[in-house]
From TrEMBL:
Protein name: GNAT family N-acetyltransferase
UniProt keyword tRNA processing, yes or no: no
Protein keywords: Acyltransferase, Transferase
TM region positions: none
This enzyme's EC code(s): 2.3.1.-
Naturally occurring in which organism (per UniProt): Nocardioides panacis
PROSITE patterns reported in the protein's UniProt record: GNAT
Domain N-acetyltransferase: 14-156
Molecular-function GO term, any one: acyltransferase activity, transferring groups other than amino-acyl groups
Enzyme class: transferase
Keyword Transferase assigned: yes
Position of the signal peptide: none
InterPro entries reported in the protein's UniProt record: GNAT_dom (IPR000182)
């Protein structure tokens, strides 16, 4: 289930349609790189992060199939709703293990940043995301409103299950 972005969401200024323009996409990437740097001024409530693309090698060449982000710290809102890690996979590329693999690859990056565990949330009705989180060792802490809140160790004790 896709929901509109919350106010302040880093990608709220862009849509899939606007990102199809190469100049707009380049500006988006430049902004994401700048925002990933700890010293970059950012709007109130925003935190620095690490942003990665999910790319699949296809017969037609590499295709961007999604993205994943690690927020380096939690604000009160992120602790309640957003968590440390967020990801999205293009609908036509779902159910192929991209998000499961991307989350598994992001956990050691979080560990390198000094995080022993990370919070990952999903909507209660998002069964696919729930499976991704649980396959990577996520332990449900609670459900707040419509959000399931999971904690994951950044050094998994078992390999992810697809």
């Amino acid at each position: 289930m896709v929901h509109p972005p919350e106010p302040g969401y880093v990608g709220a200024d862009y849509t899939l349609e606007t990102l199809a323009d190469p100049a707009t996409f380049a500006a988006f990437c430049e902004r994401e790189v700048a925002l990933s740097q700890p010293g970059t001024p950012r709007p109130t409530g925003w935190v620095s992060g690490t942003y990665l693309w999910m790319v699949d090698d296809t017969a037609d060449g590499p295709q961007v199939v999604g993205r994943i982000s690690l927020r380096h710290e939690l604000t009160a809102w992120l602790l309640e709703v957003g968590g440390h890690i967020g990801y999205a996979v293009r609908p036509s590329a779902r159910r192929r293990g991209h998000a499961t693999r991307a989350l598994a690859l992001m956990l050691p990056i979080a560990a390198e940043r000094g995080l022993d565990r990370v919070l990952v949330t999903c909507d209660e009705d998002n069964v696919g995301s729930r499976r991704v989180i649980e396959a990577n060792g996520g332990v449900l802490e609670d459900v707040r409103g419509t959000k399931r809140r999971y904690w994951l160790p950044t050094r998994p004790t078992h390999p992810p299950q697809s």
